[in-house]
Automatic annotation (TrEMBL):
Residues 22-401 form the Beta-lactamase-related domain. The keyword ATP-binding does not apply. One of its GO terms (molecular function) is hydrolase activity. This is Serine hydrolase. PANTHER family: BETA-LACTAMASE FAMILY PROTEIN (AFU_ORTHOLOGUE AFUA_5G07500), BETA-LACTAMASE-RELATED. Keywords: Hydrolase.
Amino acid sequence: MSIDVEVAPEQAGFDAKRLARLDTHFARYVDDGRLAGWHIVVARDGRVAHSSVYGQRDAEAGLPVEPGTQWRIYSMTKPVTSVAAMMLWEEGHFELTDPISRWLPEFGDVRVYQKGSAGAPFTVPAVEPIRVWHLLTHTSGLTYGFLQTSVVDALYRKAGYDIQSKPGADLAQACRDWAALPLLFQPGAGWGYGVSTDVLGRLVELWSGQTLQDFVRERILEPLGMTDTCWSVEPGTDRLAALYVPGPDGKAARFDAVGQAAFEPPAMASGGGGLISTAADYHRFMQLLLHGGTFQRQRLLSHRTVGFMTRNHLPGGVDLDALQTGGFAETTFEGVGFGLGFAVVRDPVPARVWSSPGTYYWGGAASTAFWIDPAERLTVALFTQLLPSSTHPLRPQLRQLVYSALIE
């Protein structure tokens, strides 16, 4: 499925010449070799005012980016899993304050890292159980092995969980492994990016009685018509963009060591980073959120639930900056809170990039990104395939160019 421009920029409140700066600016990243290619979509009131592609989805094969190109969206899977969980919350399967050990008893006696090395860590008992809302807000103390910023993530790597999961481990096994490792901090006492949403995906399985793949497909993807969103693609498929990393010369270098994983069904369906999607499909998901849980007469969530999810749920209403533990994240910390699955802008000034207060968003490890601005009725998404997402300042540049084109 492709995505077409539905309304002239001027009719959507944009200056067409200013909006065209998007293509001029981001084309430079391809022309000098820093990116292989990209797809940018800007919509207002649900109507696409700008959809442009540039460069190659597979530079080595000479295949161009097309409107139907598939992309590894990595952590842009997290909002999808969060929506899945909150659909079950609306059905009464759990309360946000419930300890997750009610369904995952392996988390009933977790310990917290205090000091020491990866070879001899000293831990203390958790004084607060991990609750469901801790998973949704990344305040659980769970982390990622690939961060390489703490003793705890070194323990994750030692247990087999790095940028890819331990070979052969399914979601149930992964949860047992993670529960046996110490937390980075006491639940609710900090904010740390990690496997929280993967554990949430396991809970979706237990609450629903379905696999995460089946629940997401039947309850979200199919109702929204997201026909090109999946957990893996068939070998030989050439619609999927190749994966790249910065080479020694700063130019994008192919990274099949990780990229090839997309061609095999995963042993562990990662609710935190496993989906592959297209611009058209993810646009439909964003419209569901912008329109309060409804898309084309399909209601997945109450508009009150969407509003609740996109408020700042951090303890004390503070910014991420007050609770963050460092390491990799898909956001800046200043002026930003966190809701139930999304970063939420509280004040754009500290980050020095405009967006309306109340804007919510997230991104993926391969430099993909999206945001939804309810005040401006705006949705924006960027798709590309460069690991890690911190390589280039694509996201703040995208924001300043889009908002400077909005003249209504």
